Amino acid sequence: MKKLFIILAMLICKVSLFAQDPVHFYLKIQQSLAHDDFESAISHAKELNEHSKEFKQLPQLLEAPDIDSLRQNFLALSEELVVMLDEGRLKGIKNLVLATCPMAFSGKGGDWVQEGKQILNPYYGASMLRCGSIKYAFDE
């Protein structure tokens, strides 16, 4: 019984730690933008701000007045996350890829991090949800 309690406590701690992982909140923002949900994206940005102060772009993201501004600021947030992942500053990363859309931002293009290989474009949302390609996978 004691072993069962210890295992259960460890699982609860692991779930709690995952829920506060900055990548978790970033992915929620990415998915919200892919589904054109401005309010949800802002809500997840606030959660990210509560759990991580590593992102310099967060204040601008939180002040975005509309979804287009939010998407522009999400690009800069994505660039910050890519640096953290490439430098190995975030551990326990699984199934994350760097995706890109060459058409985003008037043809300048834009990258983002997402789970899995099915494109969920946060820059165009429903209008071009599958526009983009995978650049590479992040190794654990």
Shape: globular
Biggest sheet, strands in spatial order? 2-1-3
Our measurement of the CA-to-CA distance between the termini, rounded to an integer number of angstroms, reads 34 Å
SSE ordering: HHHHHEHEE
User: What is the β-strand count?
Assistant: 3
Oligomer: single chain
Secondary structure: helix percent: 40-55%
Structural class: alpha+beta
The proportion of strand residues reads 5-15%
In DSSP terms (H or I, runs of 4 or more residues), the helix count works out at 6
Low-confidence stretches: 4-19
Largest sheet: 3 strands, antiparallel
Backbone CA Rg: 16 Å
Q: How many domains would you count in the coordinates?
A: 1
* Average pLDDT number: 88
Overview of this structure, please?
- This protein has 140 residues and is of the alpha+beta class.
- The chain has one domain (2-137).
- Helix content is 53%, strand content 12%.
- It has six helices and three strands, in the order αααααβαββ.
- It has helices at residues 2-19, 22-34, 38-51, 58-62, 67-86, 104-107; strands at 96-101, 110-115, 133-137.
- It has a three-stranded antiparallel β-sheet.
- Helix 2 runs antiparallel to helix 3 and helix 2 runs antiparallel to helix 5 (67-86).
- The longest helix has 20 residues, at 67-86.
- Residues 4-19 have low confidence and may be disordered.
